[in-house]
Amino acid sequence: MSIQEQISTTQTQGIRKVMLERVDGEQLRLSWRPPLTVSKVTICRSDAANLAEETAHLVAVVTQAQELTFKDPKPNGRSYYFVKFEGGETVAVAERIIPLKGALNFRDLGGYRTADGRAVKWGKLYRSAGLSLLTEEDLAYLQTLELAWICDLRSDAELAVSPSPAIGDAANEQLSFLASANPEEMMAGRAITIDMLAHMNRGMVSNTALTAEYFRKLLQREGKPTLFHCAAGKDRTGFIASVVLQALGVGREDILEDYAITNQFSERFKEQMSGQRDTHAEMLGKLDPEVIHALMMAKPDYLAASFEEIDARYGNFKGYWVTGLGLSMEELARLRSLYLE
After folding, report:
1. Which of 59, 278, 313, 338 could connect to 223 by a Cys-Cys bridge, CB 3.0–4.6 Å?
2. Which parts of the sequence belong to the Tyrosine specific protein phosphatases domain (predicted)?
C-alpha cells in the first residue's frame, strides 16, 4: 500500500496532512491526519492540476467522517483531487506513486510545502526508475501526463542495454550523471561496501556542471511537465530530486521522507534485476546478501550525506546554488515561480 500525502495548513480544522492511497486495484482512500472527525468535506476531481469549476467533477460530500474510500473514476489516467474542509482551505492532492506495470518508482514530486508556505505544483515534476519495460497500457497512461521533456541520467552503456521508448511528444535527452554507476566500473574501481552509497551521494555534490546543466534545461521548459530518471530511480534520481526540492524551498526532513518512499520498491527491483541477464545482475551475483540489501535500500543517511557535504563546502544550499552551480538568484526565483503555487 502506498501513501501519498499533501501537507496542509488547514488550521481551522487542525488538519496537517491530506493523504490519498491506492488500497486495492481501482480503489482509492482519501484520509487526513490527525484522524479527526470533520463536520463536512467536499471532494472534487479534475483532469487538470488546477481547480476550475468548468473542469471539476464532484466526487462526494462527506459529513462526520475521517476518511472516504471510492472507486477510481479514471484508472487509466491522472486525476487530481481538491478537498474542501468546511471553514478551511481547499487542499490539492494526487497519487504520489503513478500506478504503472512496467516501471517502478514513478512518482510525482508535487504537494510538498515550502518554508514560505507555498507548495510544489502537482503534475509538473516526475521522477522514475528505468522505462525500458513500460507496457502499451503504461505508455497510454503516461501520454496523459503531457510530458515535454525526459532527462535520462544513465550512462551510454546503460542506454545501450535498456533503451527507453518514446512517450508522446516528449523530448528525450541523456545527461549521463554518474559514469561510476556502471556496474563494470563499480566492480573494477573499488570494493562495493555498505557505506558506498553515502560516499556516492557526497561525491555527487561535486558534479556541479551537470547539475547546473539540468537546471538550465529545466528552466527552458517554462514549467511544462518533465521527468528525470536513472536505472533504479534511487541514487542519481534521488540526488537530483533532492536538489530540485531544496531549490524550491522544501525542508530537508520532507526530502528525506520522499527519498525513503523508494524502499517500497526495493524487493521488486531486486527481483527485476536478478531476472535480467546483464551486468547489473552479474554484479549482484558477486555480492554478499548484506551488501545487496544495503544497495537496494534508500536509507535517509545516504542522502543526508549530500546535505552534509553541501553545508561543509558551501555553508548552505544558497551557497551551493550560487557558488557551486554558478546559477543566479534570478534563476532560482524563476524556478520557484514556475513550479510553486
Report:
1. 338
2. 212-284
Alpha-carbon Rg for the chain, nearest whole angstrom, is 20
- Asked if 181 and 42 sit in the same domain, the reply is no
Tell me, what's the pLDDT at 9? 37
What is the DSSP annotation of 139-152?
HHHHHTTT--EEEE
CATH number of the domain enclosing 38: 2.60.40.10
Q: What is the mean pLDDT of residues 202-213?
A: 97
| Percentage of the residues of the chain whose pLDDT score is greater than 90 | 67
18 and 166: one domain?
no
Q: Is residue 98 situated within a structural domain?
A: no
- C-beta separation of 215 from 329 below 8 A: no
Cell of 288: 554478499
Assign 3-state DSSP to the chain and report helix, strand, coil percentages, each to 5: 40, 25, 35
Q: Which residue in the list 49, 230, 241, 247 is annotated as catalytic?
A: 230
Residue appearing with cell numbers 534508500: 298
Quickly state the pLDDT bin for 281 (edges 50, 70, 90).
low
**Domain stops at, among 59, 93, 127:** 93
Asked whether residue 99 is assigned to any structural domain, the reply reads no
* Among 81-85, 130-134, 313-317, the least confident range: 81-85
pLDDT at 264: 92
Cα dihedral 311, 315, 321, 325 in deg (nearest 10): -80
Q: Global pTM?
A: 0.88
Last residue in a domain, options 62, 93, 124: 93
Position 274 scores a pLDDT of 60
Average pLDDT in the chain: 87
Domain that holds residue 81: 2-93
| Residue 102 counted as domain residue | no
Residue 100 falls within a domain, yes or no? no
